[in-house]
Amino acid sequence: MNHLLFIYEKYKDLLIKPCFRKCRVDNQFLIVINDRLEIFYLTDTAKEMIKTISDSIKVDDLFKIFQEEYEVDAITLKSDIIDFLKDMQWKGIICLNYLENSEVQ
Predict the structure, then answer these.
(1) Taking residues 73-97, what's their average pLDDT?
(2) Alpha-carbon separation of residue 90 from 23, 36, 40, 84, 94 (angstroms)
């Protein structure tokens, strides 16, 4: 198992929650404002991912949705999702939380 799969295994049961202050679609961009009042312009795939997690979703569920929607190799998609999550966390747009044992499916 390479390091990417190890990292993904640690992330897959985490719950992704949006933690931004406000967002809106403006033509091809999704404009997001975090709690520090920083503004980010997201395009295409990042915009779709943010829309998908708007109601909170597990990392593995996000993977399954995008695997069905796009023709991409599983390792590449897992890598892209991990990179996306780290970037969005750093920007204060999403939060990752552990689920309680009773919530894990």
Answers:
(1) 94
(2) 17, 12, 12, 10, 9
